[in-house]
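Student: I would love a firmer grasp of how sequence relates to backbone shape in proteins. Thank you; the sequence and its tokens follow:
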Amino acid sequence: MSVKIGSDEHITGIFRLITELEQNEFNFNQFKNEIKKQYNYCCLIYEFENKVVGMINLRLEYQLHHGNKIAEILEFIISDKYRNMGFGTELFNEACEYALNNNCVEIRSG
């Protein structure tokens, strides 16, 4: 089990989690194209037994009303089957560390 920055090899797993989160089906090709365009975002994934079972998507940006760089949680999910195993806590802690390492003064949910 490990937390890592999502890459092209994880897109299918991330897509599966987003459809689970939203309880909706989306166009995979459009999703794949849009996720690759994100430049001030970071999608951290949680892998367990070579499967993406969790993800947290952050937007890192300078926000005028905060006067600083902020990390905003846009999506955060652990697949139902893998909840209550500490994966969400570990993923959230890694997201906080990532935000601090990227000069964010705050992490918040939108």
In short: The chain has three helices and five strands. Helices lie at 11-22, 28-37, 87-101. The two ends are 28 Å apart (CA to CA). The chain has a mean pLDDT of 93.
